[in-house]
Amino acid sequence: MIEKVEHIGIAVKDLASACKVYEKLLNTGCYKTEHVASERVDTAFFNTGVNKIELLAGTSEDSAITKFINKKGEGIHHIAFAVDDIYAEMDRLKQEGFTLLNETPKKGADNKLICFVHPIDANGVLIELCQEID
Ligand code: ZN
Predict the structure, then answer these.
(1) Closest CA to 72 of 83, 64, 80
(2) What is the pLDDT of residues 19-68, one digit of tens each?
(3) Best exposed site among 17, 28, 42, 121 by fewest CB in 10 Å?
(4) How far away, in angstroms, is 2 Cα from ligand 1 center?
(5) Confidence of residue 78 (pLDDT cuts 50, 70, 90)
(6) Model's pTM, two decimal places?
(7) Number of C-alpha atoms within 13 angstroms, CB side, residue 6?
(8) CA of 43 to the centre of ligand 1 (A)
(9) How far is the CA of 85 from the centre of ligand 1 (A)?
(10) Model confidence at 109, in pLDDT bands (50, 70, 90)?
(11) Quick one: pLDDT at residue 123?
(12) What is the distance between the alpha carbons of residues 15 and 20, in angstroms, rounded to a whole number?
């Protein structure tokens, strides 16, 4: 079951300067920064009520975030939905014909299991499913 929009991911060139902008914008401090080695990204999280904002900066040229920014510039990169059972949701979406970018959930930032759905099947929006790891 899809529970809510968990966070919106925003691709940024420079995490430190983007953090300053979003701290001002949201009038709240970043509560967590995390390097995700497998994705080659640095992330920063902000609480915005029931949802979060995730800033992502690539840490190498072959990072998906760096490639995204080189192609499209900074901006909204993905929308993440919290799910109660990521395996069940992945099965359901596969049966509905969506292309999953990973066959098994992987460990993402912020203590989550995650899976991405190809934007080609979602009207150009990269979708992330995420489930809190207990
Ligand atoms: Zn995300």
Answers:
(1) 64
(2) 999 999 999 999 999 999 888 999 999 999 999 999 999 999 999 999 99
(3) 17
(4) 15
(5) very high
(6) 0.94
(7) 22
(8) 9
(9) 17
(10) confident
(11) 96
(12) 9
User: Can you read off the two tokens belonging to residue 28?
Assistant: 């709240």
Supply the pLDDT for residue 110: 86
Q: How far is the CA of 95 from the centre of ligand 1 (A)?
A: 23
Ligand 1 is a single-atom ion; what residues have CB below 5 A from it?
9, 54, 80, 128
Could you give the CA distance from residue 76 to residue 103 in angstroms, rounded to a whole number? 24
Calculate the CA 124 to chain-centre distance: 15
Task: Please enumerate in sequence order all residues whose Cβ is within 8 A of that of 37, keeping only pairs 6 or more positions apart, or say none.
Answer: none
CB 10 within 8 A of CB 76: yes
84: CA distance to ligand 1 center in Å?
16
